[in-house]
Amino acid sequence: MPSIAIKRAYDKPEPRDGLRILVDRLWPRGVSKAKLQLDAWPRDLTPSTGLRKWYGHEPTRFAEFRHRYKAELAKQREQLEALRAMVKGRPATLITATRELDLSHAEVLRRILQKKKK
C-alpha cells in the first residue's frame, strides 16, 4: 500500500513529500510553479467544475460529494490506474489549495489510491 499524504499548496515542499502531485483543477492562487515543485498534475482526475461548485466545501454535502466524485473517477479508469502505478511503492503527496483537507477531494482520491485492487 503506497504511503500517500495530503498537503496544502501553500505549505513548504519537503524532501519527505516524495512525488508531489497537484490534484486541483485550478492552479493555486499566488503560488509559482517553482515553489510548488510538482512531479505531476493529472487534471482529468480532479472534480469537474460543476461538482466542485455544487459542493462549495459545505460539510453537510461531503457524503454526496464523495459519491459523485467517485462516479466521475470511475469514468477515468485509465488515468487513475496511471496515477496508481506512478505512486506504487513510493512516498507521494497530493497537493491542494483546499483548507479542509479531511473534507476534500484530495482525501477521497488518497483513499482510492491506497485501496488494494481486487
Describe this structure in words.
With 118 residues, the chain is of the alpha/beta class. The protein has one domain. Helix content is 38%, strand content 12%. It contains five helices and three strands; from the N terminus they run E-E-H-H-H-H-E-H. It has a three-stranded parallel β-sheet, covered by helices on one side. Helix 2 runs antiparallel to helix 3. The chain is globular, with a radius of gyration of 14 Å. It holds the Pfam family DUF488-N3i. This is DUF488 family protein. It comes from Candidatus Acidiferrum panamense.
Distance between the termini: 13 Å
Instruction: Tell me how many strands there are.
Output: 3
In the sheet with the most strands, the strands line up as 1-3-2
Helix segment count?
5
> What is the domain tally?
1
Basic shape: globular
Q: From the alpha carbons, calculate the radius of gyration and give it in angstroms.
A: 14 Å
Q: Which structural class do you get from the secondary structure elements?
A: alpha/beta
Portion in helices: 25-40%
N-to-C SSE series? EEHHHHEH
Mean pLDDT, rounded to whole units?
93
Can you tell me the residue ranges where pLDDT is under 50 for at least 5 consecutive residues? none
Bin the strand percentage: 5-15%
> Major sheet: size, sense and barrel closure?
3 strands, parallel
Organism: Candidatus Acidiferrum panamense
Protein name: DUF488 family protein
